[in-house]
Design brief:
heterodimer; A: alpha/beta; globular; B: alpha/beta; 5-stranded parallel β-sheet; 28 strands
């Protein structure tokens, strides 16, 4: 079974982000999007099961994003591809999906596993857009996958502690939720060996695309990014915990009167 | 991250007489056991704090004369120009970093055993002192009083001559002749130096006045005063009464006040000064300082184991104090002021209040810190708490197995030294190792700061990966792909009762009703049986934790120990008196001086260390707190096959912390730190030698030859 796993490199949590112009925030450190660690693990598990298979990870990103691909190769992916063109800087989910669709068309995977969302933009759109472009069966926010020959049985967690069980014919695209598995951690040896695995860099033309087409595919464009304005009127309460608690109680009583 | 504007107040300069503190951070006098004999160590431990942003740094208690010799405890000394010259290095280094330096002048009177100088002790009244050795003394006559005051003046002049900026006349912690004059408990004089409060204060006031006249134009004058003796002895000092009046009487003589409450040495209040975290949190003596606040408009410095800038800023803004005095927080993090100033709050290494620092002084040994492995190593090993050199073998990858104190520290320092990749792997699903259980013992929650500080720092290191919930066996380690392997797999408590006093196991330890500390803490004290006997040959906090945990679970608890006291090591940390008092008050039966001989379902056979006759005890369950043994099987398995190591590309396998030898948390953290600091030496397993500050035998010989017949006269 050939599984394609689109992944994204995101700013490392806890780092100070720098906003400059409409481009994506600049961060000191980067890491693999949290959800993508789970989709990768699900993919590696599918490929490890009978009858065996191959996991291809792909990212749309600049050179630094190869670090995220290497992390995936260390954790069991077999090959990796990075697609980039300056026009993709700050691309929206539809534009990214268009690029991924072009790669998927050449690779013809049986399963595409996406993270349910990215931790930075949190659009939760790239996966479903990709399914739409490829006209694939798709199931979103999956938290369990079972493989039965040429079909997958998948679970979705719904609100109110309900679950939905679906049987999906292949090829299909699933977006994966974080409770699906416990992603493996790479050993130092696996990290070193990852550098020897195939990692290709592709431009738009190699996928039969051009910048104008990608721009046309986009549904939105970022005009500006800004820090929220700091609110005013907050009062800091000071004193011992007891004094602060008493003051809060006093304020609440006063507010209750107002309400 | 920028500094919170609420903390700006901490960085306002404070004028103290002829000197100015650049901010409100004052490293209050604290012991190091470096004294004037280890001038390099003394200079650099204080100098590091000056570099870290403290506006003022102080010596420990500094003896003014050979008639006040604290051996085997180590004070600083200003007996002569040689002492002063040695302490000068400290003042110089403080100045280099923009801080000012102070000396805390001390004469112990009857507290001083004078074991070195062999001079008879003199004090306010003829008495025996209970502080250290029940030393006796004779009562000072008026000429003697003048002499002692002369010692203070001479010492102050020596301090000024070598550049000290603050002279502190110590009358606190119940361990000073000054305080003994002040307190009716000790002062039984009938002349003008005894009786009324004004008379009791006279010696102190005259001394401060003389010191001020001698050096007050150049040096800020302060008096470290105990404002409350924290007991109900009517002859003690109460903040709103005696202390208030003392402060009013001396207010015109000082430039600022250095105030504290409680004492350290005398049995009845031991440990109430530098209170351990098991008893109190930040600024626990606030009420005593607040009570004397209206007595003075001079700046007040007071300690409170401050680690939280919010508490500090509130203490200043509320007006209770003007200067943040700190000993232990400056020990755990010499860079505390700088980190607050620069808004680097998540880098603050908070004191955990374990008092291992004080325990070293009490044992006559150099100071150490659980949180700060570099403490005391600034000079002799050249370690800087915030700066790390890039390792010359930084291209290597390292696997650290075990994320307890030693493993966390080692991985953190290796990360800071730029190793290409460090993996810290632990079988548990959280960091901390043995500390996870220990910090869940009653009253030891603050000890969890050891883990939380390291968790935050490890998370920031891009080259360090923490992998939890993963148990690695030898094969997994061998094929992990690391060039350097560090085994930090900890220790376990012996279940068979093997113990130091008898060097034997205890028959019957295999019964189901006999438990290890790990089993008790896993059950949170809720083991089977109503009456539990804790047998302690360890002597430190574990048996206390067991007793408290069992009490909290509703058990009746008996503690048996072969030592003369329960929790005997805690006399060094200042916790023992209160622990023993409080456990007894909660109904724990404590049976000292008994060895546990045998455990049977019918009962326990014990034996007094003085008499051979067996004593019978009954209990439903037994907890053995006897000794720990290393969990070192993985280490030995790895080292057993050098060829396989070579074949897998592993160049070295080390073991650190409890896995090497079970010790205190402070020593484990030091061990992990030390290995990481020296990971690129030719033989990292063997610590590099440190600089020793030894007297020079040639100089000593020439000194002796210079004496025309007979021993040297005591210099005054």
């Amino acid at each position: 079974m050939k599984v394609l796993v689109p992944v994204k490199q995101v700013a490392r949590l806890g780092e100070d982000l720098v906003l400059e112009g409409p481009g994506p925030p600049q961060a000191e450190g980067w890491e693999l999007n949290e959800w993508d660690a789970f989709s990768l693990e699900a993919a590696v598990k599918l490929a490890e099961g009978p009858p065996g298979g191959e996991v291809l990870v792909v990212t749309v990103g600049p050179e630094r994003a190869e670090e995220a691909l290497l992390a995936c190769l260390a954790r069991g992916a077999d090959r990796a591809a990075r697609i980039w063109d300056p026009v993709l800087e700050g691309a929206d989910p539809l534009a990214v999906a268009a690029v991924l669709a072009a790669l998927a068309a050449t690779e013809e995977p049986e399963v595409i596993l996406c993270g349910a969302q990215s931790s930075d933009a949190a659009n939760a759109a790239t996966g479903v857009a990709l399914a739409g472009l490829l006209d694939l069966a798709r199931v979103a926010v999956v938290d369990a996958i079972e493989c039965n020959g040429d079909r997958l049985t998948v679970h979705r967690e719904l609100e109110g502690a309900r679950a939905e069980v679906l049987r999906v014919a292949l090829p299909a695209l699933l977006t994966v939720q974080t409770q699906i598995n416990e992603p493996r951690r790479a050993t130092l040896r696996e990290i070193k060996q990852a550098r020897a695995k195939p990692l290709v860099t592709l431009g738009l033309s190699e996928l039969g695309l051009d910048p104008a087409g990608v721009l046309a595919a986009a549904g939105s464009r970022t005009v500006a990014l800004a820090e929220p304005e700091r609110g005013e009127g907050a009062r800091m309460l000071e004193g011992s915990p007891g004094e602060i608690a008493a003051r809060i109680a006093e304020l609440m009583r006063a507010d209750a009167g107002a309400l | 991250m920028a500094r919170d504007p609420r903390h700006d107040v901490l960085f306002e300069p404070v004028r103290i007489g002829p000197r100015t503190m650049r901010n409100r951070f004052y490293q209050s006098p604290h012991c190091t056991s470096f004294g004037a004999e280890l001038p390099g160590a003394q200079a650099h431990i204080r100098g590091m704090k000056a570099e870290g942003g403290w506006a003022a740094v102080n010596t420990e208690f500094c003896s003014v004369h050979p008639s006040s010799d604290s051996r085997p405890l180590v004070s600083a000394r200003l007996w002569d120009e040689d002492d002063a010259r040695n302490l000068a290095a400290m003042a110089d280094l403080a100045h280099e970093h923009g801080a000012i330096a102070g000396v805390e002048l001390w004469h112990g009177g009857c507290v001083a055993g004078n074991l070195e100088t062999r001079l008879p002790a003199r004090s306010v009244s003829q008495m025996n002192d209970d502080s250290l050795y029940s030393t006796s003394c004779y009562e000072l006559d008026k000429a003697g009083i003048r002499e002692i005051q002369g010692y203070y003046v001479a010492a102050a002049r020596r301090a000024r001559a070598v550049g000290f900026d603050i002279v502190n006349v110590h009358a606190s912690e119940c361990g000073s002749i000054m305080q003994h004059f002040l307190m009716a408990k000790y002062n039984r004089r009938t002349d003008e130096y005894g009786g009324s409060l004004e008379n009791r204060a006279r010696f102190w006031l005259e001394t401060i006045e003389q010191v001020r006249e001698a050096v007050g134009e150049d040096c800020a004058i302060t008096a470290r005063l105990c404002v409350d003796t924290l007991n109900d002895d009517p002859r003690g000092i109460r903040a709103p009464e005696e202390a208030y009046q003392f402060i009013q009487l001396a207010d015109h003589l000082v430039d600022f006040w250095d105030l504290q409450a409680g004492g350290w040495v005398a049995a009845e209040w031991a440990g109430d000064d530098a209170v351990a975290s098991r008893f109190a949190g930040e600024f626990s003596h606030r009420e005593y300082i607040a009570a004397v606040r209206p007595a003075t408009r001079k700046p007040i410095a007071a300690v409170g184991r401050f680690t939280n800038p919010d508490t500090m800023a509130e203490a200043i803004r509320s007006g209770v104090i003007d200067i943040i005095a700190a000993a232990r927080p400056s020990i755990a993090d010499p860079f505390l002021p700088k980190k607050i100033e620069e808004g680097r709050y998540d880098e603050i290494r908070e004191c955990i209040g374990c008092n291992i620092c004080a325990s070293r002084f009490a044992q006559g040994a150099p100071i150490v810190c659980t949180q700060n492995a570099t403490l005391g190593e600034e000079f002799r090993r050249g370690w800087h708490p915030e700066r790390f050199t890039s390792a010359s073998n930084a291209e290597k990858t390292v696997l650290v197995v075990g994320a307890g104190p030693a493993g966390m520290e080692c991985a953190m320092v290796l990360g800071r030294r730029g190793m290409s990749a460090v993996h810290l792997v632990d079988e548990q699903d959280a960091l901390g190792g043995s500390l996870r259980a220990i910090s869940s013992y009653p009253h030891l929650g603050e000890w969890g700061r050891v883990t939380s500080y390291r968790r935050v720092q490890l998370d920031k290191l891009a080259n360090v990966e923490v992998i939890l919930g993963t148990r690695l066996d030898a094969e997994a380690v061998l094929t992990y792909g690391a060039e350097i392997v560090v085994v930090a797999s900890g220790a376990r408590w012996r279940a068979d009762g093997m113990n130091g006093p008898t060097q034997s196991t205890i028959p019957g330890a295999e019964h189901d009703f006999v438990h290890t500390p790990e089993q008790v803490s896993a059950a949170n004290g809720a083991i089977d049986g109503d009456h539990v006997l804790v047998y302690d040959t360890d002597g430190y906090f574990t048996a206390v934790g067991m007793a408290e945990m069992l009490l909290a679970a509703g058990k009746r608890v008996t503690v048996l120990t072969p030592y003369a006291n329960f929790a005997t090591f805690m006399f060094f940390t200042g916790e023992a008196f209160r622990v023993n008092r409080e456990l007894r008050a909660q109904g724990v039966e404590i049976v000292p001086l008994h060895l546990l001989g045998e455990i049977t379902p019918e009962g326990l056979r014990a034996q007094s260390v003085w008499a051979p006759d067996p004593v019978h005890w009954e209990a439903d369950a037994v907890v053995l707190v006897t000794q720990r043994e290393p969990r070192d099987a993985l280490y030995h398995e790895l080292r057993a096959d050098p060829d396989r190591l070579t074949q897998e590309g592993i160049e070295a396998v080390y073991r650190i912390g409890d896995c090497l030898a079970p010790r205190t948390i402070a020593e484990n953290i030091f061990d992990g730190h030390r290995l990481a600091r020296e990971i690129d030496t030719p033989d990292p397993e063997t610590p590099l030698p440190y600089l020793r500050e030894l007297p020079d035998a040639n100089r000593e010989r020439s000194l002796q030859e210079s004496i025309p017949g007979g021993p040297p006269a005591m210099r005054t």
